[in-house]
Amino acid sequence: MRRQLILELRKKGITDDAVLQAMENLPRHFFIDPGFEEWAYQDQPFPIGSDQTISQPYTVAYMTQLLQVRKRDKVLEIGTGSGYQAALIALLGGRVYSLERHKTLYEKTKRLLLQLGFERIRLFLKDGYKGLPEFAPFDRIIVTAGAPAIPEALKSQLAIGGVLVIPVGTDSQIMYRLTKLSDQDFKEEKLGPFRFVPFLEGTEP
After folding, report:
1. Which residues are designated catalytic?
2. What pLDDT band is residue 1 in, cutting at 50, 70 and 90?
């Protein structure tokens, strides 16, 4: 089923072999509640609790391909969710710092990632809008929720030459990729339409 999903992603235009190989190596069903394994390799999102979802595999592959993670890159993820995206980036060699605003989801995912051997992924229960200034700058930043605008804090925490991938919009979103050219200048690319859960400020119990 996993191999079939990878073939489907190739047909939909995912071309990064490293991303596809990492997705083939990472069992997505580990990140979905027991009893729903048959849903894990369908190309669709799935609820994971706390009004959150594990993103559609195509969306994960598309965003990861845009991110262009290199080995040893310092990567900030906003929205840990199930932990699937963080684990994928770690398999690509990224040093992952991931923020989650929902305490129950944060605790559940932290346990899961430790069980799966991803102890090097650093998880934080924090407001994603503020980023993680104490560990900045980051080579890559990925936001897995729909933001009404790109938070300035995240732009400031990006290293020169770094890449930020973020869906921007309210009801539906347009995927943006920003490349930081200097402290003030960014190259901005507007890409395809997507739909995400909203990017909210603060934290939740």
Report:
1. 55
2. confident
